[in-house]
Design goal:
CATH class: Alpha Beta
Distance between the termini: 16 Å
Shape: globular
Strand order of the largest sheet: 1-2-3-4-7-8-9-12
Order of helices and strands: EHEHEHHEEEHHHHEHEHHEEEHEH
CATH topology: TIM Barrel
Radius of gyration: 20 Å
Structural class: alpha/beta
Largest sheet: 8 strands, parallel, barrel
Length: about 400
Amino acid sequence: MKQTWRWFGPSDPVSLENIIQAGATGVVTSLHHIATGDPWPITDVRERKQAIEDAGLVWSVVESIPVHNDIKTRSGDFRKWIEHYKESLRNVGAVGVDTVCYNFMPVVDWTRTNLDYQLPNASKALRFEMTDFAAYDVFVLERENAASDYAQDVLEAARARFSTMTESEIALLESNIIAGLPGSAESYDRNSLRKTIAEFIDIGTEGMRANLIHFLEEVIPVAEEAGVRMCVHPDDPPFSLFGLPRVLSTADDARIMLSAVPSESNGLTLCAGSFGARADNDLIDMVREFGDKLYFVHLRNIKREADGSFYESEHLDGDNDMVGLIAALLDEERRRKDLGQALEIPMRPDHGHTLGDEIGQTNVNPGYSFGGRLKGLAELRGVIHALESLRH
């Protein structure tokens, strides 16, 4: 497996030199300075690739070329944004970067309620707390008909939680929920968030799925011509929030998407933490079923709770069978090798804990600390080494 590292560009507190020190050989990055929807200029793409190569690394995966909300809703200037997306794909392919991760999540890229959840060892993790989320949705955002989306016990706990919250706690919770991916330029205030949510609810799940398929029908032929493999990232978390439609949360969702637009350039990102937040997603079975369409892997672990809450645990200590998952991925790589295919799967340690001297620092992206991911990659590398040694 190709060991890679997410890098947020020149402003990232984790340097390219740090990435080499961590033992990764590939970089996963995006042009965050380009506004969502605007085409990526070939000069900017070349400049980023050159900076990575000058450091002795390889640009392995684009994560991501963001998909404009007009494309997801198939409204407004969506045709213009699709043409811009095609231009970005051509320019990425022209410099030899052949893998593009993207997502089709509505409104925000990922959702957590706590970006500094303290673990027993005093390190900090990302957490999604259903009670807090419901308190925000029902009593702070005051989304229309929000209460009907929650079980009565969750609603009662949310009401009790909200009654004790200070203004500063509400502000922090709101900031956490709409944080999206670090490096993203998009953000919402309360009114725009309500409005955007309502637009997506009106589309519905099948409408949203149709819009994804329409998008792929447009861009996959361009990806094929450019020599680019696209791999969609699953919903995070993989269940409805704010009443929003979800179209990439389960194996069934992946089957529909892959079969609707059959192409070598239409693939999947296996995010263990996202898919794994649902107990009914069998990650090892998904590797076996979708192996030839897995172009990128995020390896992280989670601890699930009965009400849908979860937190991001140690990479080797959670509800996901990380050793079994890596073994299945190595089997897939061996299958490819036996067929004469040189398609090594890029993987990256995802959402490491904040620990040591990085705790309390203001320039550390939650989930993307150096120390936490260094620890995670070392653990994952050890599993890979042990499994490969047993096979020889």
